[in-house]
Amino acid sequence: MGLWLLQAAGLVTSLLHCGTVRVTMRQRGLDVVQGDSIILPCSFFTRSPLSRLSIVWTRTPLSDPRSPSQVIVYDHGQAIESPALMGRVAFLDVPWRADIILNATHTSDAGMYRCVVSNPPEAGGPGVGEVTLSVFAPPSLPLCLWEGDASAGGSVTLSCAVQEAVPVPEMQWDKLEPEEMSLSINMDGTLKGTLSIENVSSQNSGLYRCTVSNALGSQCCYVRLHVYSSPEASPGVLQGALLSLTMTLVLLALSALLLWLRQSASMRWWQGEEDGCYNKIRYTPSLIRRTFV
């Protein structure tokens, strides 16, 4: 009987020192607003001393499950932060718990977080727990642009885009001036919306507004569109132009006539002067006498 008791005690002692680490995640999903802090909980149970405890936190983007990255590590009594999260992540109560805090959260912090705890000499694989973090953000300030041919009869596209917004925002185009109306919009992805206007006319000129909104807030941007059209000549304008042209031609003709008359008068006067001088010389008595002397 004594031998049996000793064997049983040895077996219990072996089980106590050769168990596996058990990890418990108190929550499976967490939400946080961008800029706030969040605690990612991870509890573990081990029978071995904590002198060789190892805790590794990793993050895997939901959009790329094959690209995990290290967040923070506890090994040999020292905590090592990822350079990308330096100053923003820390353990809260290590080595008794594996909880970490993430400060000044970014939308890029979202993903699946995994807490891996091992504590040699316990047999078996490490304990693993997972929690999904969602980081929400109001829409950033949108950018409004227009492109295309803004002359009458052309085509114009108005675009509205934001850099980030979680959850996916709703977009709305409105014309504010000269009359107010809501317009349909085509979504180009999740963060950009466009408005196409074909065969534009002067009626399409005015002030347009794009509103981007989600559960956390809304932002707006504006763009003013000017449609250019060439002025059409009216009958009155044409008649005025013809009258001005006619008057100009008449004035030119009168000027030419006056110039011709003036030149003709000058020619006659000059010829008259020449004839008078010739007659006087021809009939001067002194010249006659000198001729016969």
Report what the structure shows.
The protein is an alpha+beta fold and 293 residues long. The protein contains 3 helices and 19 strands. It has helices at 2-17, 235-282, 285-292, and strands spanning 22-24, 29-33, 38-40, 43-45, 54-60, 69-75, 78-81, 89-91, 100-102, 111-118, 127-136, 143-148, 156-161, 170-175, 181-183, 186-187, 192-197, 206-214, 217-225. A 6-stranded mixed beta sheet has the order 2-11-10-5-6-7, with no helix packed on it. Strands 12-13-17-16 form a 4-stranded antiparallel beta sheet, with no helix packed on it. Strands 15-14-18-19 form a 4-stranded antiparallel beta sheet, with no helix packed on it. β10 (111-118) and β11 form a beta hairpin.
Number of helices: 3
* Ends distance: 198 Å
| Helical percentage | 10-25%
Average pLDDT value?
82
Q: Note the main sheet.
A: 6 strands, mixed
Query: Strand-residue fraction?
Result: 35-45%
DSSP E strands, number: 19
Alpha-carbon Rg, integer: 49 Å
SSE string, helices as H and strands as E = HEEEEEEEEEEEEEEEEEEEHH
Please state the structural category. alpha+beta
What strand order characterises the main sheet? 2-11-10-5-6-7
Brief account:
With 293 residues, the protein is an alpha+beta fold.
Keywords:
single chain, rod-shaped, alpha+beta, four-stranded antiparallel sheet, six-stranded mixed sheet, 293 residues
